[in-house]
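FW: tagging you since you asked about this chain on Friday. Here's the raw sequence from the shared folder, copied in full. Didn't touch anything.
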Amino acid sequence: MNRQKSRIVKCWGINFLGHGINVDGSLILTWPSEDRLKGKLRQVTRRNRGCSFDQLIAQVNRRMQGWLYYFRYAKMRKKLASLCSWLKHRLRCYRLKQCKRAIGIARWLQKLGIPKNRSWTTAASRRGWWRKACTPAAYEGMNNSWFADQGLIDVMNVYSRLHV
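HL: got it, structure written out here
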């Protein structure tokens, strides 16, 4: 008998193939599974990778679809919403870094329809890439419809379809 694997615990303390069991008997997502996915997505969305944004979106879509189909029976709507917003923040950061300099960021944000003064406020910010990605101009320019146009799957929509 393996003492690490065999134990008596409450139902929410079980981690079986990445799934946990809720008090009402339904399947839930465990935090180690969520952390593993975030780690894999961090590897894919590193800012120093030399791939185009389209290739990045394709890799993220492949990873997320496989993960969603595996965990389709788990109740994880709130965790999935926070994961989706975190992923979009990372993708905004990646796309802003591709513009490289302030003038490139400002021109690109203006192409997305952001007024000149607001795009320059974001572009000329001396904060890091992560902070630039959470500015209102970045959120307005790279909104959900922009991500849909780029080809990113709507994770919540896919989960709703699978989890009927």
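FW: The longest strand covers residues 19-21.
HL: agreed, and The chain has nine helices and two strands.
FW: great, closing this out.
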